């Protein structure tokens, strides 16, 4: 199966799950559409979205963007205030709204799966210049700021998905007066917690490649960085924008700091005082 088909399938599922309940709720209010018509409309909308997605040249890069994440996570949450304001516990409308709220699960899956595919493609085509490890000792984990520290982001993403599913199922229990799903809610919450316990690794692998920086299995393009700094305690990768945190790694925990810094210099400017001195020296040489 083409790995591109997974985000496409999740997108179709998201659109169908989001729009189907809305069509049914509208039909119940106006009397113009019944359950079979709403289901048919939802399936048609999902299929149309999947077919439209296939016409996008760089679909994976588009679906892995932050604005797609916002578009696929925020709209289903509109069902929650509807459940509170417009419906009562145990009502049929509440059950329909919960189905719409569950669209947030494939909604999260769309950008996450696209990011996984994109990372895999970048890793496959990348040439590694230098590979080092950070942490790995019991007394010294990776840096707690930035994406160092051995965070296992795919596991964290799975925990978030299960956590959101727990909220949606919990809403179903609250608004349908059904105790049958209580054990499912507890199970989802417990699984989410367990996943988070495994979200930190003892050792982080950093690889400087021609396609970007690899942190364990996660790739970041060089365009996402403004430069790097070497302070007394850390090697810092600076990203543009105040809302993007600097990614830092403890120098004492890097297995081969010299190799890492030398490789970084091939792709990024050095922003600390040492880098400014080198830049001034180069400019002086060119002027002569």
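^ Assign residues to that structure.
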């Amino acid at each position: 199966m083409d790995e591109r088909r997974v985000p496409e399938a999740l997108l179709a599922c998201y659109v169908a799950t989001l729009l189907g309940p809305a069509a049914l709720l509208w039909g119940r209010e106006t009397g113009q559409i019944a359950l079979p018509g709403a289901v048919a409309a939802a399936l048609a909308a999902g299929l149309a979205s999947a077919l439209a997605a296939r016409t996008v040249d760089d679909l994976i890069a588009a679906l892995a963007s932050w604005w797609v994440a916002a578009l696929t996570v925020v709209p289903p949450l509109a069902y929650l205030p509807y459940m509170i304001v417009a419906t009562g516990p145990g009502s049929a409308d509440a059950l329909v709204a919960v189905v719409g709220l569950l669209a947030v699960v494939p909604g999260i899956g769309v950008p996450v799966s696209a990011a996984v595919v994109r990372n895999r493609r970048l890793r496959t085509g990348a040439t590694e210049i230098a590979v080092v490890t950070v942490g790995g000792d019991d007394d010294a984990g990776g840096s707690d700021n930035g994406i160092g520290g051995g965070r296992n982001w795919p596991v964290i993403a799975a925990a978030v998905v299960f956590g959101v599913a727990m909220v949606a199922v919990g809403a179903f229990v609250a608004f349908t007066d059904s105790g049958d799903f209580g054990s499912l809610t507890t199970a989802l919450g417990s699984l989410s917690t367990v996943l988070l316990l495994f979200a930190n690794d003892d050792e982080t692998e950093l690889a400087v490649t021609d396609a970007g920086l690899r942190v364990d299995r996660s790739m970041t393009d060089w365009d996402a960085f403004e430069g790097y700094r070497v302070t007394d305690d850390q090697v810092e990768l600076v990203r543009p924008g105040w809302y993007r945190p600097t990614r830092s790694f403890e120098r004492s925990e890097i297995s081969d700091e010299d190799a890492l810094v030398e490789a970084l210099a091939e792709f990024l400017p050095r922003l600390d005082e040492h880098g400014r001195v080198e830049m001034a020296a180069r400019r002086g040489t060119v002027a002569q």
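The longest strand covers residues 128-135.
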